[in-house]
Amino acid sequence: SFQRRVVGVTTRLDKLLGEVRLLEDKRKSYLAVLSAVRRIPLDVLGEIFTILFPVDLTIRDRVALLRLGHVCRSWRAALMQLRSVW
């Protein structure tokens, strides 16, 4: 009886460890993307934001801009430097 329980727990642990490895791989890939995005100069980031939005901003566009500004400090700084956005 105890032997079956040990085998069951071992099997469950193996499965969970496999899931942990998959999650760690996903996390590493996300961190790699974030690292690349953080290295983009503010003026280039600002140009990207300018391309994203039309010249005449609607309420929906303004809300989207506010959300972009909440992503991180550098995104907010890039948005603040753009006169065309405001």
From TrEMBL:
- What lineage does UniProt assign to this protein's organism? Eukaryota, Fungi, Dikarya, Basidiomycota, Agaricomycotina
State a single Pfam family of this protein: F-box-like
The F-box domain covers which part of the protein? 34-86
Q: Which InterPro entries match?
A: F-box_dom
Give the species.
Ephemerocybe angulata
Name of the molecule in the record:
F-box domain-containing protein
Report the superkingdom from the record: Eukaryota
